[in-house]
Design goal:
The chain is 41% helix and 2% strand. With 352 residues, it is mainly α. Keywords: Membrane, Transmembrane, Transmembrane helix.
């Protein structure tokens, strides 16, 4: 009796998608078994037809239109993955975050590097040596005595002109503490009033106070005279701008010194001390005169103030003559030293 003809419908069939799924003899079945075993690990031999039928029934997910032709290849599941749009969005977000992180890191590195760079402030030892000045703008008294004047004085303006002896004597000057207190409010708001940026911080003002005291002790210039010049030149604003002369000399900082230094936000304390020093003791590297050199040259605070503002005294001897600078400069300084802070000036060109 001839062996029954059968077909394989197993999912393991190496002929899925072909039309040759029909075998007519046991020999052909055995060949198929060998091929399937090698390719897919199927059992190589079956001793009984029932065993083959059982295997077929358990492993035949595909269907056939008839005994000779497969319906077609097994459908393939779409591959898992992201769409292009989703990829672009995700990678875009990653790129933005990376840029932000990089910018932050660079900012931190720059800030730390800048802060780690020391400010090259070198204290000077220049002192007043003209003995005449010690009665009129210089002093050997300890500047820690901040109550060294006639009290708060009077907030009023008197116009002064002429030679130095026409201006109020130092025994009419108010104390350093009263001069400071009377002008502190104006100092706190000076930068915004001058439209040069944010106002001094409380720390900035503390640094100014300490720098005046320190440089007064080092230079022997009266601390009240230093403060009066600061108020006249910058109103105490650490961010004040600078002027430039026709010869290229710049006048920056709290005291508008001769080619001096400007305020540094990162090194506030050291730069403020530098600015006070530049105006008080001069800028040696630029051959710029400070209050020390002018007191030594002229022997009194008012002539020294005119020389500091103009670079020379007018031949007339009148300290309220402009002399190439500000006519009211010396009169303003004298009034500050005697209590003027907010009253209306009586000088037509009052200011620095």
């Amino acid at each position: 009796m001839a062996a029954p003809q059968r077909y394989y419908s197993s999912s393991y069939s190496p002929l899925v998608g072909n039309t040759a799924a029909f075998y007519s003899s046991n020999q052909e079945l055995d060949q198929y078994d060998d091929h399937a075993q090698k390719a897919y690990g199927m059992p190589s031999k079956y001793s009984q037809d029932d065993d083959r039928s059982t295997y077929d029934n358990h492993n035949a997910p595909l269907t056939y239109d008839n005994l000779n032709t497969l319906k077609g290849p097994r459908p393939q599941r779409p591959k898992a993955g992201w769409s292009k749009k989703r990829k672009y969005v995700v990678f875009g977000i990653i790129a933005v975050v990376a840029v932000i992180i990089l910018a932050v890191v660079i900012g931190i590195v720059v800030a730390l590097t800048h802060k780690s760079t020391p400010y090259n402030y070198i204290p000077l030892t220049d002192q007043v040596t003209n003995e005449t000045s010690f009665n009129f703008g210089a002093t050997k008294n300890d500047p820690s005595n901040v109550n060294d004047g006639v009290g708060a004085g009077q907030d009023a303006y008197t116009y002064y002109s002429g030679t130095a002896d026409q201006f109020p004597n130092p025994d009419k000057w108010i104390s350093f503490q009263d001069l400071w207190n009377g002008n502190l409010y104006a100092m706190k708001h000076a930068c915004k009033n001058l439209k040069v940026g944010k106002d001094n911080s409380d720390k900035d003002n503390e640094y100014i106070y300490a720098a005046i005291q320190d440089r007064a002790a080092a230079s022997l210039v009266d601390h009240r005279f230093i403060l009066a010049i600061i108020l006249q030149e910058s109103h105490g604003c650490v961010r004040v701008g600078e002027t430039t002369s026709s010869t290229g000399i710049t006048n920056p900082g709290l005291m508008q010194s001769h080619n001096g230094k400007v305020y540094s936000e990162t090194h506030a304390n050291a730069s403020i001390w530098q600015m006070v020093q530049d105006g008080t003791q001069g800028t040696n590297q630029s051959a710029g005169y400070g209050l020390v050199q002018n007191l030594d040259l002229y022997g009194n605070a008012y002539s020294a103030a005119r020389g500091y503002n103009s670079g020379y005294l007018p031949t007339s001897g009148n300290l309220s003559e402009a002399a190439g600078a500000t006519a009211c400069y010396v009169s303003d300084v004298a009034n500050r030293l005697t209590g003027w802070a907010n009253a209306t000036s009586k000088c037509s060109s009052s200011g620095s």
